[in-house]
Amino acid sequence: MANNNNRGNKSNEEWRAILTPEQFRVIREKGTERPGTGKYNKHYEKGIYHCAACDAPLYKSDTKFDSGCGWPAFFDAIPGAVDRHVDVSLGMKRTEITCVNCGGHLGHVFEGEGFPTPTDERHCVNSISLRFSDK
Predict the structure, then answer these.
(1) What is the mean pLDDT of residues 86-94?
(2) Which among 11, 62, 72, 73 would be 20 to 30 A from 131, CA to CA?
(3) What is the predicted pLDDT for the residue at 4?
(4) pLDDT on residue 8
């Protein structure tokens, strides 16, 4: 799949040199890691989750919660860190979330599922799209 979102002025070849093949598939080609396989799904240390591609801060650990979906879930992003786009790739309307800095695919956001969070949103994020820092 060609990637037309090339913020950060990097070519696909440059992204391939920076990212692992699986990171490239998920972050640049809008793939999805298998549920329950990501290292941050059940990770609850205090800190900041950054974009694995460009290191931009995306989520504070205070907004992470266990949704039971098999991927890390957050109820809100750091203000201005995440873009939202309509995604109809699977024949249904979803909201894709991407890093505002590099355009990398993070996952999808779902609303109105009834989780007891301040926003009633679930940012369902691929672990492979994230890097954690306890600083």
Answers:
(1) 86
(2) 11
(3) 40
(4) 60
Interval 101-110 mean pLDDT: 96
Identity at 60, one-letter amino acid code: K
**pLDDT > 70: percent of the chain:** 94
Find tokens 């809100």 and name the residue.
76
SS3 state at 73: strand
Q: Please measure the distance between the N-terminal and C-terminal CA atoms of the chain and give it in whole angstroms.
A: 36
Active site residue 124: yes
Rounded to whole angstroms, the Cα distance separating 117 from 106 reads: 20
User: Letter for the amino acid at 122?
Assistant: R
List the catalytic residue out of 51, 54, 102, 124: 124
Residue 39 falls in which region: left (phi positive, over 0), alpha (psi -120 to 50) or beta: alpha
How wide is the angle at C-alpha 105 spanned by C-alphas 101 and 83, nearest 5°?
50
Tell me the Cα Rg of the chain: 14
Distance of alpha carbon 88 from alpha carbon 75, whole angstroms: 22
Q: pTM for the complete prediction?
A: 0.91
CB atoms near residue 66 (< 10 Å): 11
